[in-house]
Amino acid sequence: MAWISLWALVLRAFGIPALTRSPEGRVARKERIIAMGKLRYVLIFGVLGNGLGLGLGNVVADTTGRHHFSAGRAATQLVISMVVFGLWHGVATWNNHFEAKFLFRRTTPRKRDTSGRIAGVISPSHAKLLSGNLSASP
Hints:
Helices cover 64% and strands 0% of the residues. It is mainly α. It has a domain at 37-101.
């Protein structure tokens, strides 16, 4: 519970209200996150969020099993865990949640079949047949 309250304070420091439950609040939050951009999202939510949480968990678990404490080892382990897991998790969640908002035009030409038609496009006469309109019209 303490970690959630600390995380909410960090998010508020960046101007992001945390723990909003209303649909309007969720939509506004999603728009603000998209306006932040992918890099800031990955750094804030990935590295400082889940990366820091996993890193602290790893450091605590590692230091409780040892007879002596090494601050250098703990700091190195924390930073590596934050960066590696944070970047991975931030990029993965951005791609899952927000990538559909940024659709790009097709840059390669569409393939044509041997008759010159665009592959995958149905001709008007075939569309009539598929729709059930089977009347013969020349």
